[in-house]
Amino acid sequence: MNVIQIGTMVRAIRVVKGFNQAELAEKSEVDPAYVSRLERGMMMLPDKYMAQLEKALGVSFDAIRPIYEQFATAVLADDGQEAAGD
User: Fold this and answer.
1) How many Å is the Cα radius of gyration of the chain?
2) Cα 68 from Cα 35, distance rounded (Å)
3) DSSP assignment string, 24-77
4) pLDDT digits (tens, 9 = 90+) for 17-38
5) Is CATH 1.25.40.10 the right assignment for the domain spanning 3-85?
6) Can you say whether the dihedral through the CA atoms of 32, 54, 8, 43 is positive or negative?
């Protein structure tokens, strides 16, 4: 999983949980700028901070990675079909 995929996953979970970036940053004790950069795929956080994000979001990224990858594959396939139909 690359940085952009991880950032997208963090953002999706954050939104579902009802947090804005500042709230997630506060709950996970991570600088808000880090959360923003991570979600935009501009940087990867050290494991320590990723663990803090997991705890704040109440998820294990390793546990949900297969689900995310299946979803992303399905979305990309749908996008390809729509583009081909245009």
Assistant:
1) 14
2) 19
3) HHHHHT--HHHHHHHHTTS----HHHHHHHHHHHT--HHHHHHHHHHHHHHHHH
4) 999 999 999 999 999 999 999 8
5) no
6) positive
> Does 85 score more than 50 pLDDT?
no
Q: Which residue has the higher pLDDT, 13 or 81?
A: 13
Report pTM: 0.70
From residue 29, how far is each of 14, 26, 42, 55, 58 by CA, in Å? 15, 5, 19, 11, 14
24 in Cβ contact with 55 (< 8 Å):
no
